[in-house]
Write a structure and sequence with these properties.
Order of helices and strands of chain A: HEEHEEEEEEHEH
Helix content of chain B: 40-55%
Oligomer: heterodimer
CATH architecture of chain B: Orthogonal Bundle
CATH superfamily of the largest domain in chain A: NADH:ubiquinone oxidoreductase Nqo5 subunit
Strand content of chain B: 5-15%
Largest sheet of chain A: 5 strands, mixed
Structural class of chain A: alpha/beta
Strand content of chain A: 25-35%
Strand order of the largest sheet of chain B: 1-2-3
CATH class of chain B: Mainly Alpha
Strand order of the largest sheet of chain A: 1-2-7-6-3
CATH architecture of the largest domain in chain A: 2-Layer Sandwich
Distance between the termini of chain B: 49 Å
Number of helices of chain B: 15
CATH class of the largest domain in chain A: Alpha Beta
Largest interface: A-B, 34 and 44 residues
CATH topology of chain B: Cytochrome-c3 Hydrogenase, chain B
CATH topology of the largest domain in chain A: Beta Polymerase, domain 2
Distance between the termini of chain A: 55 Å
Structural class of chain B: alpha+beta
Mean pLDDT of chain A: 85
Number of domains of chain A: 2
Low-confidence stretches of chain A: none
Largest sheet of chain B: 3 strands, antiparallel
Radius of gyration of chain B: 21 Å
Mean pLDDT of chain B: 88
């Protein structure tokens, strides 16, 4: 078993090997300490090929592709604002007032790739790709042309999460049937009311 | 009598094999396009058993997912349990007592044995060896299931392992029963092998059929006996040394040609290696607790983070990827299903083969639809 370079070292290797690629190390607080690398869409394919073919890393085995849903969140923060407030004598004065402000943080869908090396017998190296949002910007570059093992798993992420993998050779639903419309693994999925199990009538 | 030809010369015929077909080992369909008897296209269609296993697990506590994992690959509930609890142990940093590690190895290798015996029986059944080999295999498998029943209370849905150990300790009598069984297994394997080794029909049907080249196997993420039949030395018991596998002496059988025959032999040889591991584990098993009493089984709340844990299940690399948001149930629970990923290259193996051979090629992949569809 060859020791695997740290995520920071891999980031340096990628940035030297694939010019222009942006890599962010995402720390993992669990005892497993499996940190991950967030890639940009434009260079993801080139980075994947680089990692697969690099003589020292040789990550020839993409074990797992996972879709993850991170819904929109709201953060509430108390902010001090200067405002004109009518004083007891009726004259408006500038005062500091506390206000709660809600900011909407847009969510995204994520594809997580766990890579190992069969030749060097090391791993995992974890890659992440994130979509722009959860509604109209759900495209990600497909890594199936680099690792065939992603073929069915990316189809599954498309089927259950609605991530559209550009460049996938055969992107169809895989577990749900073709006429199905929603994405059942999303956190806000609501099962249909007219479910045959509830009503006994086929929709 | 004049029969209208279904397909004229040069025309292709589309056949839907399954979903209810004895050769598909469950509800599984292959859309096959044929030129005469030769396969020119094959698309696997599955999902008939889909019940969104991953969503069910995300809705419940960490403990609640264990009985559901039994139902993934329903022939190998013990190894499914192990894959999941290993991932939780990595996520939460839980240690496992020595005795529990030994019991895990014993039940996992028994599982591997009964899975491979069953697979070989089914594969020979697919080739037309009706009944006999399968019944030989099932006779032996029944003995293993009896042991599982007396240990866990269930033959197939064992629900036996827990993060931090196993649910109940095994008795000295149970260990003696296992020793007795392991003592007679080599004889069964000899008998089983002699039944079909050098059988001309078996050779003719399997050698050179459904070849999976080494590079494609690696690139397509094929794991388990299928990968090793293509000559890649990759066994997670050796690579990760999870549990206590570094303490045992055992070999990793490798194939040369990656055809159906090699995949068949891989199972036979792996059963012998399992017997070796079982003998050593049964010799060395220490006394002691089987679960750390400080582990919170109910109400486990791992820190925010994620972990991927994997084991060498009889079918291949079985992994679980868990993301914790600090609450009592996993934010994301993902199974790496070896059966489904090994199906990725089914078409590649079948192209150019006869339609009758797709049955044995599929049989040599070793799929269980409970895991493919989840």
């Amino acid at each position: 078993m060859t020791p695997l370079p740290s995520p920071e070292e891999i980031k340096t290797l990628i940035e030297a090997g694939v010019p222009g690629a942006t890599v962010t190390v995402i720390a993992n607080g669990s005892p497993s300490a499996q940190h991950s690398l967030l890639l940009d869409h434009e260079h993801a394919r080139a980075v994947a090929e680089f990692l697969r073919d690099h003589a020292e890393l040789k990550l020839d085995f993409c074990s797992l592709v996972t879709g993850v849903d991170w819904p929109d969140t709201e953060t509430t923060a108390k902010v001090k604002v200067k405002k004109l407030v009518a004083g007891p004598d009726g004259v408006e004065q500038e005062q500091e007032v506390e206000e709660t402000r809600k900011t909407k943080v847009p969510g995204y869908l994520e594809a997580v790739y766990h890579l190992f090396s069969m030749g060097k017998k090391h791993g995992p190296v974890v890659l992440r790709l994130r979509t722009a949002n959860r509604t109209d910007g759900t495209h990600l570059p497909s890594l199936t042309p680099v690792w065939r093992s992603a073929e069915f798993q990316e189809r599954e992420a498309f089927d259950l999460y609605g991530i559209v993998f550009d460049g996938h050779p055969d992107l169809r639903r895989i577990l749900m049937w073709d006429g199905f419309v929603d994405y059942p693994m999303r956190k806000d999925y609501v099962p249909p009311e007219d479910d045959i199990l509830v009503t006994g009538v086929k929709a | 009598m004049d029969l209208e030809p279904i397909a004229g010369p040069g025309e292709l015929l589309e056949v839907s094999m399954g979903p209810h077909h004895p050769s598909t080992h469950g509800v599984f369909r292959m859309d096959v396009r044929l030129d005469g008897e030769r396969v020119v296209r094959l698309k696997p269609v599955f999902g008939y058993l889909h019940r969104n296993h991953e969503k069910i697990a995300e809705k419940g506590a960490y403990l609640a997912a264990i009985p559901y994992t039994d139902r993934l690959d329903y022939l190998c509930s013990m190894t499914n349990n192990w894959g999941y609890v290993l991932a939780v142990e990595k996520l939460a940093g839980i240690q496992v007592p020595e005795r529990a590690e030994y019991i895990r190895v014993i039940v996992a290798e028994l599982t591997r044995f009964q899975n491979h015996a069953g697979l070989v029986g089914f594969l020979l059944q697919d080739m037309g060896a009706s009944g006999t080999p399968l019944m030989y295999a099932f006779r032996e498998r029944e003995k293993v299931l009896d042991l599982f029943e007396s240990l866990s209370g269930a033959r197939m849905m064992c629900n036996y392992m827990r993060f931090g150990g196993v649910r109940v300790d095994c008795s000295a009598e149970w260990l003696d029963e296992v020793r007795q069984l392991v003592g007679v297994l080599p004889r069964f394997l000899d008998e089983f092998e002699n039944l079909l080794r050098a059988n001309e029909i078996l050779m003719a049907r399997t050698q050179g059929t459904g070849v999976l080249p080494r590079e494609l196997a690696i690139n397509a993420g094929v794991t388990g006996p299928m990968l090793r039949a293509s000559g890649v030395n990759y066994d997670i018991r050796k690579v990760d040394k999870y549990g206590i596998y570094d303490r045992f002496k055992f070999g990793v059988p490798l194939g040369e040609h990656g055809d159906v025959y090699d995949r068949y032999m891989m199972r036979i040889l792996e059963m012998r290696e399992s017997v070796k591991i079982l003998e050593q584990a049964l010799r060395d098993i220490p006394a002691g607790p089987v679960i750390d009493p400080k582990v919170r089984l109910r109400g486990l709340r791992p820190k925010v983070g994620e972990a991927y844990g994997r084991i060498e299940s009889p079918k291949g690399e079985l992994g679980f990827f868990l993301i914790s948001d600090g609450s009592g149930n996993p934010y994301r629970y993902r199974v790496r299903p070896p059966c489904m990923i090994n199906l990725t290259i089914l078409e590649d193996m079948c192209l150019g083969e006869n339609i009758a051979d797709t049955v044995i090629i599929l049989g040599s992949v070793d799929i269980v639809l409970g895991e493919v569809d989840r």
